[in-house]
């Protein structure tokens, strides 16, 4: 029972981490002081949860306070017993599950889209880390999907003298041996012993590459039903902007 609670806490925290890209916006204003048709908040917002005590939230929803696009983004309402700061804390606590359900539906759709492209041989669905990275660098990837449990890291060895770069993606336990290998061997470029080694989490690395080319990166839960489907393909997949033609349909 205790373990169950701990697992649940962990999951909630993970959910919130996954939701970091979501914007949370909280209005603490009295209803009557809210301007009609408040315009958006943020184009990045994916959904709105309206929380408040008693009928206040229905008044808010029905009172046309929101611009119609925002109105359509309402996911659900939460009954809060408190108002003010305590009410906000309460809304956060209660919205965890709601948001995690919402995210799960989103992840399911993403992975179904990926499998549809792969199974229909449209050339738009690919998987396998190395191929996905190549396609990403070539700006062909529309959406990159990776599970949150790959345990992979990118290790790079860079020569301080000639800037020659060595890199490899390895599992967690191989990070230190790989770094040692880079730093204890001469640079393949200039033979100097000035190789400096660094490591980075695979998601951080992909995030940097994705940002450069405007690719959407989605980190999905590897333990959820659809994450397991992606895991069976090696935990990394991508939906492409177009069929690059010569791309091999990877078997990893
Ligand atoms: Zn060198």
TrEMBL record:
Protein origin, superkingdom: Archaea
Sequence ranges assigned to domain eRF1 in this UniProt record: 43-101, 105-243
Coiled-coil region(s): none
Pfam families: eRF1_2 (PF03464), eRF1_3 (PF03465)
Gene Ontology molecular function: translation release factor activity
Record's protein name: Peptide chain release factor 1, archaeal and eukaryotic form
Classification of source organism: Archaea, Nitrososphaerota, Nitrososphaeria, Nitrosopumilales, Nitrosopumilaceae
């Amino acid at each position: 029972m205790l373990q169950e609670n701990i697992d649940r806490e962990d999951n909630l925290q993970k959910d919130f981490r996954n939701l970091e890209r979501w914007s949370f916006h909280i209005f603490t204003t009295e209803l009557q002081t809210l301007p009609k048709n408040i315009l958006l908040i943020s184009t990045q917002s994916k959904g709105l949860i309206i929380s408040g005590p008693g009928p206040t939230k229905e008044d808010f929803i029905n009172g046309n306070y929101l611009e119609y696009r925002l109105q359509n983004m309402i996911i659900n309402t939460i009954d809060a017993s408190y108002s003010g700061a305590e009410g906000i804390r309460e809304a956060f606590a209660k919205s965890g599950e709601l948001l995690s359900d919402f995210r799960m539906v989103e992840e399911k759709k993403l992975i179904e889209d990926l499998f549809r492209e792969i199974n229909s041989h449209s050339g738009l669905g690919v998987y396998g880390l190395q191929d996905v990275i190549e396609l990403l660098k070539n700006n062909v990837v529309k959406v990159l999907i990776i599970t949150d449990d790959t345990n992979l890291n990118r290790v790079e060895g860079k020569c301080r003298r000639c800037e020659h770069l060595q890199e490899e993606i390895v599992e967690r336990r191989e990070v230190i041996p790989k770094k040692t290998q880079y730093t204890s061997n001469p640079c393949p470029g200039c033979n100097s012993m000035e190789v400096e080694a660094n490591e980075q989490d695979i998601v951080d690395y992909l995030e940097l590459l994705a940002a450069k080319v405007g690719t959407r990166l989605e980190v999905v839960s590897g333990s959820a039903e659809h994450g397991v489907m992606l895991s069976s393909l090696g935990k990394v997949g991508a939906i492409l902007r177009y069929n690059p033609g010569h791309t091999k349909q990877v078997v990893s």
